[in-house]
Amino acid sequence: MAAAAEEEGRAPTKYVLITGGVVSGLGKGVTASSVGVVLKSCGLRVTCIKIDPYLNTDAGTMSPFEHGEVFVLDDGGEVDLDLGNYERFLDVTLTRENNITTGKIYQSVIEKERKGDYLGKTVQVVPHVTDEIKQWIQSVSSVPVDGQTRPADVCVIELGGTVALRQLSFSLGKDNFCLIHVSLVPVLGVVGEQKTKPTQHSVRELRALGLTPDLLACRSAQPLIGSAKEKLSQFCHVPVENILNIHDVPNIWHVPLILRNQKAHEAIIKQLNLSRSAGPPELRDWTLMAESYDNLSTSVKIALVGKYTNLSDSYLSVVKALLHASVACSQKPSIQWVSASDLEDAAAASAPDAHAKAWETLKGSSCILIPGGFGDRGISGMILAAKYARENKVPYLGICLGMQISVIEMSRHVLGLGNADSEEFNTDTSGRVVMYMPEVSKTHMGNTMRLGCRRTFFRKPDCLTSKLYGNPPHVDERHRHRYEVNPSFVPMLENAGLQFVGCDESGNRMEIVELQDHPFYIGVQFHPEFKSRPRKPSPPFTGLILAATEHMRTLTNVSNGDAGASE
Question: Which of 142, 139, 138 lies closest to 151, judged by CA?
Fold first, then answer.
């Protein structure tokens, strides 16, 4: 690949590999994203790849409790949540190929074997599987993700395996490969001494696998002291100036600034021989964003009523979108986690304390958000939350399932259709106000939904949602759903005040609902959180925060995209 690039008269893509050790959950994803931000601020073009060791071909069928949210890309790829971090930090648009899994690799190798591509050879992990990984990485890294036509200067890879990357490092050469190892430096006991031994062992294991770190990124609660750095340098054979310390910070937007202050960019650029292409880092806007959040003094309480509230990563993109919108409105988001099951009438008898606490939290919040989800657990609680928001004029945003919940709630309590339900929860009901999409498979779960970026047209140009987006004729947002509003019930619901203001190109698939005579009650079939960025907050989320903080004049006078940007 490097030779091919030189023949085309362009510099080959360089690679920064991020590995992790000691314990999981150290923040490899944030580190990879932050390295990308710093390199991008130096004028380099950056792309990212996440390598996961599991046998699933993608993240689409994985439980949110076990793996966190499934992030959806423009091309419909269902991928690891870290790709969401990459897109948000770097403001790029990745593809499904940027998430490599062991399952994808084995599937590709087996398909090639079946076609006879290996000419009868015995197919083995080495070299066939490892070669496939190398080829995949080099192929994906050559695809532009920033709207330009030329490949990126640097590809940041977050790693979950090592063998193929050892071979990639060898084939590329030192000038094209930089390895950053993320490790933990804990403080044990009352003495408060920073312990370097776990990192020493982690580096030793990495070396045994044939990979040698060029930089260490040490995670710690407090800044690393000089003696700890010197000990790490001595025993890990890494220069002191290449030992970075990512200590705890008020918000993760500070991490790129920490790396810049420790001159991480200089070490990486020197290792990759990119001095001619890179300039000094320009992070003034990023610094302003990080510091402005720290200086915010008021907060807004947002009740997030969901099914997976015990693991906040299940709703990571929703949380980030609320953060982006709140900061744009000069607020700190105070997310109040409400388990939908605790709101249900049955919980009053089985778990009275949890039931009372859930309702107290809901009623004490300035707005209510119901995100996406699958399955019937907690649905009754969500319907009650939507009913409370409607009747008490509390700002409400329903996303995907949350929009369908608002349709069911209105059908039951306003239209009087007591049997109104979704086909997902009750296949026998005659009040099927939400139905299975006819083109979707009922036998296979993976990659069979309506996925990726789809166009939504505004049926009513003067609607509130259109104003939030800046009055365009249509918007492009990402989708992930199997069910849709039954168009047979749309006229009845509109006569009752629930207006369907957005639809797909056919005019039959409903995408956006708004409730008349309510300060802010919006449901969207798509997932606007997936395209939210720190300095480009999602318009529906911005509208929710504006409504919650009673900035109604700003909300109703939105035009030209003002609510959708915080530049």
Answer: 142
In the chain, CATH 3.40.50.880 covers 296-554
Alpha-carbon separation of residue 209 from 131, 202, 204, 212, 287 (angstroms)? 17, 11, 9, 9, 38
Residue 273 DSSP symbol: T
Residues 237-283 have pLDDT tens digits of 999 999 999 999 999 999 999 999 999 999 999 999 998 888 899 99
The stretches in the chain having pLDDT less than 50 are 1, 6-7, 9, 559-567
The whole-angstrom separation of Cα 527 and Cα 529 is: 5
- Give the pLDDT confidence score for residue 5 in this predicted structure: 53
- pLDDT reported for residue 203: 94
Q: Are 308 and 521 in contact (CB under 8 A)?
A: no
**How many helices and strands, by DSSP H and E, does the chain display?**
22, 23
As given in the structure block, the two tokens for residue 469 are: 């987006």
Q: For 12-290, which CATH superfamily applies?
A: P-loop containing nucleotide triphosphate hydrolases (3.40.50.300)
Cα–Cα distance between 157 and 140 in angstroms, integer?
11
Q: Report the candidate in 469, 432, 436 with the shortest Cα–Cα distance to residue 555.
A: 469
Angle CA 369–475–374, to nearest 5:
40
Where in the chain is CATH 3.40.50.300?
A: 12-290
Q: How many residues does the chain have?
A: 567
Query: Which ranges of 399-550 would DSSP assign to H, the alpha helix?
Result: 401-413, 464-469, 490-495, 539-548
Residue with tokens 């069979």: 448
**Residues contacting residue 354 through CB under 8 Å, at least 6 positions apart:** 339, 342, 347
* Phi-psi map region of 238: left, alpha, beta (phi>0 left; psi -120 to 50 alpha): beta
Residue 214's nearest CA partner among 246, 188, 172, 181 is: 181
> Catalytic residue numbers?
400, 527, 529
Helix (H) or strand (E) holding 515: strand 510-515
Spatial separation of the C-alpha atoms in residues 108 and 102, rounded to whole Å: 10
- C-alpha to C-alpha distance for 545 and 113, rounded to whole angstroms: 54
Q: Are 48 and 36 in contact (CB under 8 A)?
A: yes
CATH architecture of the region 296-554: 3-Layer(aba) Sandwich (3.40)
Distance separating alpha carbons of residues 389 and 6, to the nearest angstrom: 61
